[in-house]
Amino acid sequence: MAQNKKASATTTIKSGEIWPDTEGKHINAHGGGILYYKGTYYWFGEHKTEGRRGNSTLFGVGAYSSKDLTSWKNEGIVLKVEEADSTSEIIKGCVIERPKVVYNARTKKFVMWFHLELKGKGYEAARTGVATSDNPTGPYTYLKSYRPNAGIWPVNVPADLKEKQVDATNLKWWTPEWTKEVKDGLFIRRDLEQGQMSRDMTVFVDDDGKAYHIHSSEENLTLHISELSNDYLSFTGKWSVLAPAGHNEAPAICKRKGRYYMITSGCTGWDPNAARSFVAESVMGPWTALGNPCVGERANLTFESQGTYILPVQGKKDAFIFMADRWRPKNPIDGRYVWLPIIFEEDKPVLKWQEEWSLEFFDKNKKQNPPLQGKRKLPLGKLP
Ligand code: DGJ
């Protein structure tokens, strides 16, 4: 069905299909994230347009609201791109990806972070932008963008690497020597002064109110986990690396029974690849790799999708939804959504294809999400 044909609202989740909003139009909120605030879910995402140029941001970030996670009302464009001021970093035609909104209880502001690429510069700017609003549905005011953590080394890199001198001129990409140097901070050193690259990203607020910005950095080779300031608008300078040279994108994170779980993808542009998963006792790591969380047919392609967010379902204990995008780069507005319940088998998040499902899945599958019997030790083989 063409994305602009009207269709009736749905009460179940059917991944990969047209998902009509309350007006019957396919939801336009790609690379999204969800905020739950006072009884309502707000879904923020990339507002794409028709045709090959549809990934450039011509309007801004869109939002939808819902009480039940299936029926979504279009709340319009909540962060608008700048139309007139050509010096603005968010001038029409820039690229805004993977917007995530969190609520700051101290400042009572809604804070939106997003991956920002400057107009006409491809993906080389690799910045993260921030905007705020007094209301979940905006309007959001753009504040600034960052290359995070300029001048600061991560907490989990040995001190001697900071002083290491490397002549990278003849170092060939993807060779074992090069991989070793990446692990030893080659790109951190390169970008130390100007700040670290930040592309695919998410934001996570922990139970204690501290927020973390998690992003693909170092030419998408290494994930960086950075603590945000108390107002969530800047970086404190405390940060760590996860899976150096592991080539991860699309980070999505949740906390279950005191442990942190992350699901990521590999890096193959708009094409799907196999997801990866990790577990840790602390957000800053160390993280342990758990492998591909997907099982069954098309598990090697994350069911033809790439993750964007892990949504904790309100009112249901330990119920999490893995949200992903089935990109359509030739006509981005027609991109589809893949939402799957996360099943925890022992300590591992597991994703199985569901043709059509509803939130009752979590009540029926309690046995598959059993409480942890005490805290077992994490397996050996920890990553930084
Ligand atoms: C993969 C990323 O996950 C997407 O968000 C987007 O940046 C594409 N790459 C661009 O090729």
From TrEMBL:
<protein>
    <submittedName>
        <fullName>Beta-glucanase</fullName>
    </submittedName>
</protein>
<dbReference type="Pfam" id="PF04616">
    <property type="entry name" value="Glyco_hydro_43"/>
</dbReference>
<keyword id="KW-0378">Hydrolase</keyword>
<comment type="similarity">
    <text>Belongs to the glycosyl hydrolase 43 family.</text>
</comment>
<dbReference type="InterPro" id="IPR023296">
    <property type="entry name" value="Glyco_hydro_beta-prop_sf"/>
</dbReference>
<feature type="compositionally biased region" description="Basic residues">
    <location>
        <begin position="374"/>
        <end position="384"/>
    </location>
</feature>
<dbReference type="InterPro" id="IPR006710">
    <property type="entry name" value="Glyco_hydro_43"/>
</dbReference>
<feature type="region of interest" description="Disordered">
    <location>
        <begin position="365"/>
        <end position="384"/>
    </location>
</feature>
<dbReference type="GO" id="GO:0004553">
    <property type="term" value="F:hydrolase activity, hydrolyzing O-glycosyl compounds"/>
</dbReference>
<dbReference type="GO" id="GO:0005975">
    <property type="term" value="P:carbohydrate metabolic process"/>
</dbReference>
<keyword id="KW-0326">Glycosidase</keyword>
